[in-house]
UniProtKB/TrEMBL annotation:
This is DNA gyrase inhibitor YacG. Its cofactor is Zn(2+). Zn(2+) binds at residues 19, 22, 38, 42. It comes from Comamonas denitrificans. GO terms for biological process: regulation of DNA-templated transcription.
Length: 73
């Protein structure tokens, strides 16, 4: 005797996240080949910003860099 198969839970819908470029909804699933972006356009805009060095990590200037060199005098 075979037992009936357990019912499968309903497929959950993939989460939607905010696109980092435009802020619009972007499906975060393998079906969205540009994730986490909403489109190829937004992905290319972000890539261009990186290439143009628009994203920078702030750093503090060290004291050695700001002090004048004694050898230059």
């Amino acid at each position: 005797m075979t037992t009936p198969a357990a019912p499968q839970p309903p497929a959950s819908t993939p989460p939607t996240v905010a696109c980092p470029t435009c802020g619009g909804p972007a499906l975060f699933a393998p079906s969205n080949r540009w994730r986490p972006f909403c489109s190829e356009r937004c992905k290319r805009i972000d890539l261009g910003a990186w290439a143009a060095e628009e994203f920078r990590v702030p750093s503090r200037e060290s004291e050695a860099d700001s002090a004048p060199d004694s050898q230059d005098a």
